[in-house]
């Protein structure tokens, strides 16, 4: 049961093992679905290589995060690591700039995961619109997306009200429903001979590709979009405070999920391009798996695929929903968000954060543009990863952290690897995704990303004011209690106003 602290922020409950953490994170391979047709638009079949490299990037980054998770077992993943490491211990001034940096990293991570709910709710609405003609006659795709979001968010809120363990059970069920058919759909085209390797080798890169600044910036932007999908399995580390044995459970969950992601991302993209060709994939940018299913299994297979994909989307919404709420709880615990967002129920669930996350995504669904929402989320994700990797470097070098016990250690010299990928995220990937957005969908998604990220500044200052006010009240109450106790001990004492 969660322990409710005096300041209104509850603590999370240690209730899961690595297999349950893996079950929740298993939604991450499904993040490839919105981008299966997007990457080949720019890179043709080389998109397969980009997915593989992006998952390897995830291994590099997540080795650092696994070490941080076992060094700071009470911190909630990326949001908690950065906040804890950058804050100034025993800070006496008014505003701690280091705490602001850590809080901004956590806010960026929250914004990176949050739009997953809106993106896949829009996809669910679109698939339902095509799957059931009667629904299409009654509702528009936009209306179905809103209804889908409302129903899914409400259902997941009820399930997760009873704690993370129940969320992991739902993850097991949905993983069986969605991931197994996805594996079958990926492997079957190779086994049945529907994959034509010439579709891959004959169109490896676009004919107009050149290694000039224009294409290099596009490549950085593509890596930012791919990273948002292929590196997201660090979510297994965010539940560090809720693992029964974080020193063993966190690395197991992270690396098991990473191996699954590598094969999933590479093989799914290869199967789609191998069956349809690059032009065929570009013709079906949102749902290229459906014509693949039609080619391999016929119309009945396509129907099964749509049902499977809807189940898969609910699984990834579950993953994002839990990750976003834990990020908000972590920020409130560290005093970087108003403490109301850290309130937990008796099952240890941060229910206020769940409600706010659902409401925010209902607003995002109203935007209706998958590309704009995804691009904005990628900006937040690159910022969060960059700052978190810099936090790892500081944790390895700073005297306050250098001698802490590390039950799991990344390979020797990993701080240099972390610095390299931190700089790759900030500024290179951020610059690339902004450039890519300006070419394709204008500046709407860039402005959305920067506005949401910048909103954190006034929220943070309010949080600091709230914390100081609470501390002053606590100090005054403590002073009054001591004074009353002293007077009771000496009832004839006369207070001297001097």
UniProtKB/TrEMBL annotation:
Q: Which GO terms describe its molecular function?
A: transmembrane transporter activity
| Pfam families according to UniProt | AA_permease_2
Q: From which residue to which does the signal peptide run?
A: none
Q: Does the keyword Transmembrane apply?
A: yes
Q: Report keywords, A-Z.
A: Cell membrane, Membrane, Transmembrane, Transmembrane helix
Positions of transmembrane segments: 107-130, 142-162, 169-193, 213-233, 253-276, 296-322, 348-365, 371-393, 414-435, 441-463
- An annotated GO cellular component: plasma membrane
Asked if the Swiss-Prot or TrEMBL record annotates the protein with the keyword Transmembrane helix, the reply is yes
Region (Disordered), start-end ranges: 472-498
Compositional bias, Low complexity, is annotated for 472-485
Report the locations given in the UniProt record.
Answer: Cell membrane
What InterPro entries does the entry give?
AA/rel_permease1 (IPR002293), APC_superfamily (IPR050367)
Name where it mostly resides.
membrane
Q: Give membrane topology per the record.
A: Multi-pass membrane protein
Q: What is this protein called?
A: APC family permease
């Amino acid at each position: 049961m969660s322990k409710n602290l005096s300041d209104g922020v509850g603590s999370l409950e240690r209730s899961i093992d690595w297999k349950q953490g893996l079950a929740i994170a298993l939604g991450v391979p499904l993040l490839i679905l919105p981008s299966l047709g997007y990457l080949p638009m720019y890179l043709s079949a080389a998109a397969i290589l980009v997915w593989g490299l992006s998952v390897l990037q995830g291994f590099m980054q997540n080795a650092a995060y696994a070490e941080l998770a076992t060094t700071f077992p009470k911190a909630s993943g990326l949001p908690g690591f950065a906040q804890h490491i950058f804050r100034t211990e025993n800070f006496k001034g008014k505003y701690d700039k280091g705490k602001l940096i850590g809080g901004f990293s956590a806010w960026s991570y929250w914004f990176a995961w949050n739009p997953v709910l809106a993106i896949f709710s829009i996809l669910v609405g679109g698939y339902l619109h095509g799957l059931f003609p009667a629904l299409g006659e009654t509702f528009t795709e936009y209306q179905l997306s809103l209804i889908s979001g409302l129903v899914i968010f409400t259902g997941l809120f009820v399930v997760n009200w009873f704690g993370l363990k129940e969320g992991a059970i739902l993850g097991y069920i949905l993983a069986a429903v969605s991931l197994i058919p996805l594996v079958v759909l990926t492997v079957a085209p190779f086994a049945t001979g529907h994959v034509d390797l010439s579709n891959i080798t004959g169109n490896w890169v676009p004919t107009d590709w050149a290694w000039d600044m224009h294409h290099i910036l596009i490549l950085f932007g593509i890596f930012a979009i791919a990273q948002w999908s292929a590196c997201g399995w660090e979510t297994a580390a965010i539940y560090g405070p809720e693992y029964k044995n974080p020193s063993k459970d966190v690395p197991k969950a992270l690396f098991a999920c990473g191996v699954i992601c590598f094969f999933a991302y590479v093989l799914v993209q290869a199967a789609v391009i191998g069956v349809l060709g690059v032009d065929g994939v570009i013709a079906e940018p949102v749902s290229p798996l459906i014509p693949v299913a039609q080619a391999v299994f016929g119309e009945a297979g396509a129907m099964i695929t749509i049902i499977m994909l809807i189940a898969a989307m609910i699984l990834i919404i579950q993953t994002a929903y839990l990750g976003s709420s834990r990020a908000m709880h972590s920020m409130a615990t560290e005093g970087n968000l108003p403490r109301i967002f850290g309130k937990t129920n008796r099952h240890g669930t941060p229910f206020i954060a769940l409600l706010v996350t659902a409401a925010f995504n209902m607003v995002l669904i109203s935007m209706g543009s998958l590309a704009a929402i995804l691009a904005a989320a990628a900006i937040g994700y690159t910022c969060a990863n960059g700052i978190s990797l810099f936090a790892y470097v500081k944790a390895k070098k700073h005297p306050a952290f250098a001698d802490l016990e590390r039950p799991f250690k990344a390979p020797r010299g990993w701080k240099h690897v972390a610095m390299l990928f931190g700089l790759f995220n900030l500024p290179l990937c951020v610059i690339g995704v902004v450039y890519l957005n300006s070419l394709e969908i204008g500046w709407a998604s860039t402005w959305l990303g920067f506005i949401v990220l910048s909103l954190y500044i006034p929220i943070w200052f309010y949080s600091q004011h709230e914390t100081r006010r609470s501390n002053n009240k606590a100090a005054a109450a403590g002073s009054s209690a001591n004074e009353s106790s002293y007077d009771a001990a000496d009832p004839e004492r006369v207070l001297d106003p001097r």
